[in-house]
Amino acid sequence: MSVWRRFGEDRDRLSLPDLLTPALYAAFVWWFATGLILWLDRLPRATFVWSFGAATLAAVAAIVGVAQSAADATPLSAFLAFSCAIVLWGWHEMSFLMGFIAGPRTTNCPPDARGWRRFKLAAATLIHHEIALAATVAALYAATWGQPNMFAAHTFALLWAMRLSAKFNLFLGARHLGEELLPVHLAHLRSYFRRRPMNALFPFSMIGGAFAAFVIAGAAFAAEATLFEQAGHALMLALLTLALVEHAFLFLPPPTTLLWGWAAPRAAKSFAEKSVAAKSFPPRTRTPRAPSPHA
């Protein structure tokens, strides 16, 4: 019997096979929503106002959904809250990728920019976007605080935290930058990325994410967890696992063509052409020292 039917039955806990439904749902939403945004972002810019207008209507509906689901502690309300958070996140992604809410700086990073100056210049390219995300996190928690169902706020906060981690890793340097997925009007962002075989933050990002996954998994499988808590935490666990996989793709060859070739064929082709170069780095060469005058 489908888990969707069993959610409506008088049961105390979900079985392990039941928990696969939230995981598969989260994976599908992640894959399809990402592909849809990539596809819309590669249409002519004249279509952006219509696409973003439709996304805004969906975001308004999602806000209503968050308000309606906040007081309801059922498994299906956990799915609703999670879905509404994804819609709101998609709205922010479209606002950034389509250039509606990004940052005041739209030019390349100066070649001589280093350290704190480089960080400030990079932050100026997306500071408005980050402020909007932070405001949304605050608004979601304010709207659902003290309510039984806070999974919309938790889901959005999780997405924001993992995306911030990914952005810092790109800033510090990664093997695969994903620059082929950037639209033309955001091409200047490439100059703020670094291609490096590893950076100091990445291990901590993975360890921190793995610890968070352990905590969420513990909540999902706790003996006292309700059906509602199991469903909500299973959705968040699946999403966090996917975020960790995305982090791993910063240093492992990402299956861009396989996952989103249908949404961004040119980007997938570009990645395929660059993949060989991205896998290897030229050996470091030492500049020969001048002979000592005392030799």
Which key phrases capture this entry?
11 helices; single chain; 295 residues; disordered N terminus; mainly alpha; disordered C terminus
Radius of gyration equals 22 Å
Shape: globular
| Structural class designation | mainly alpha
Distance between the termini: 85 Å
Number of domains: 1
Helix-strand sequence: HHHHHHHHHHH
Largest sheet: none
Number of helices: 11
Structure description:
The protein is mainly α and 295 residues long. It has one domain. Helices cover 63% and strands 0% of the residues. The protein is built from eleven helices and no strands. The protein has helices spanning 3-6, 16-41, 48-69, 75-97, 115-124, 127-144, 151-172, 202-220, 227-248, 256-260, 265-279. The chain is globular. The N and C termini lie far apart (85 Å).
Q: What is the gist of this entry?
A:
The chain is mainly alpha-helical. It is about 65% helix and about 0% strand. The termini are far apart.
List the helices and strands and how they pair.
Blueprint: H1 3-6, H2 16-41, H3 48-69, H4 75-97, H5 115-124, H6 127-144, H7 151-172, H8 202-220, H9 227-248, H10 256-260, H11 265-279
Helix pairs in contact: 2-4, 2-9, 3-4, 4-7, 4-9, 6-7, 7-9, 8-9
